[in-house]
């Protein structure tokens, strides 16, 4: 009896391994496609923005230098962005939240056509 349970577990394990490796392969292919699209779009953008000539050797060398500079600048911008996000106070709850009024419809001077809860939310 235990042999059949072990064989069944091995078969289920093999099927799961095949499925997981299939998904891992699919994830790898999707990642490569996304990276290729990013590379193509970013090279085209940098080449058009800087009027780079990709048909000559000298133009290609200059293009590679400009593109790598653009990539390092992009990485620096992400570094600055994440550094600024980390410095923010994400735990602060001192902001005021407008209260909804359950009373009669309220008209605001900003939007004369909106009444009721929608305008009470934005009322001073």
Describe this structure in words.
This protein has a domain at 24-77. It is built from 3 helices and no strands. 0% of the residues are buried. With 124 residues, the protein is mostly helical. The mean pLDDT is 76. It is 69% helix and 0% strand. The protein has helices at 2-49, 57-87, 117-122.
Short description:
This protein has helices spanning 2-49, 57-87, 117-122. The chain is an all-alpha fold and 124 residues long.
Biggest sheet descriptor = none
Rg from Cα: 29 Å
**What is the number of E strands?**
0
Helix/strand class? mainly alpha
Shape: flat
Low-pLDDT stretches: none
Percentage of residues in strands: under 5%
| N- and C-termini, Cα separation | 75 Å
The arrangement of helices and strands along the chain is HHH
Structure annotation, total helices: 3
Average pLDDT level: 76
Oligomeric state: single chain
Helix percent reads 55-70%
What is the topology?
Blueprint: H1 2-49, H2 57-87, H3 117-122
Which key features would you list for this structure?
69% helix, 3 helices, mainly alpha, 124 residues, single chain
